[in-house]
Specification:
single chain, alpha/beta, 49% helix
């Protein structure tokens, strides 16, 4: 987790906790109790000792109402700040890494028209996993039948194809399962290609790489494979 994101989460938590505490104080004061009784006793001991009802006399009213007003304003401020930090936008930045000469396990989400290009680009990979939309299963199977020379190929069908959040969740679950059952020697990270993927699946791969042990791959026009990392920072 980036430092800016961690600080934002801490600030949001502190403001949310303050809202919770101040709400309890404010509700207690509306039941005619004094807020900051210990502090008020130090400055106005006699008024606090006589205090029984806020409308009994003017001193009782002021030592009840002024802390109530202060707490109400503070409650509004902390509520606004908590909401501000929750909705603070995040900045996503792709960090370009060095060329990747060796890729033991490549995961792809290619479109139907780019399937052959993807398989050709990563023909040297030890293992290829294809995550393809189930809605087009018959068309993909017909295309795969023309590429039977790739014996290191595994195909997994994705149920969702329209909702970005659901596609990302399904992709994350598959990555967790794949890494958990990965054989020795394949490493603890997956390389996911976004060169030939549809925009929806590319976006899902980007968000998946934030939470999972996934690095993004892009096949350049020169024939080399570039590795990318995605980082997230809170806007300051």
């Amino acid at each position: 987790m980036e430092r800016s994101v961690l600080i934002q989460h801490l600030k949001t938590s502190c403001y949310a906790l303050s809202v919770f505490v101040l709400t309890g104080w404010f509700a207690d004061a509306l039941n005619e109790n004094l807020i900051f009784r210990t502090i008020l006793r130090f400055f106005r001991p006699q008024d606090v000792a006589r205090y029984a009802h806020p409308f009994a006399d003017w001193p009782s009213f002021f030592i009840w109402f002024i802390p109530l007003l202060f707490t109400g304003l503070l409650l509004m401020f902390t509520s606004v700040m908590a909401l501000h930090h929750v909705k603070k936008p995040h900045l996503y930045q792709i960090i370009k890494k060095k060329a990747l000469p060796h890729y033991p396990h490549v995961v792809g989400l290619p479109t139907l028209g780019n399937l052959a290009k993807f398989l050709t680009s990563y023909a040297k990979a030890e293992k290829i996993s294809l995550l393809l939309p189930k809605a087009q299963q018959s068309r993909y199977q017909a295309e795969l039948a023309l590429n039977q020379q790739y014996c290191n190929l595994e195909v997994h069908w994705l149920k969702e194809q329209d909702d970005l959040q659901k596609v990302t969740l399904e992709l994350e679950q598959w990555v967790k399962k794949e890494l958990k059952h990965a054989p020795a020697g394949h490493g603890d990270i997956l390389f996911l290609d976004i060169t030939y993927a549809a925009p929806l699946y590319s976006s899902a791969a980007l968000f998946c790489s934030l939470e999972q042990d996934v690095q993004l791959l892009q096949h350049s026009s020169e024939g080399s494979v570039l590795r990318y990392d995605l980082i997230c920072q809170a806007k300051t």
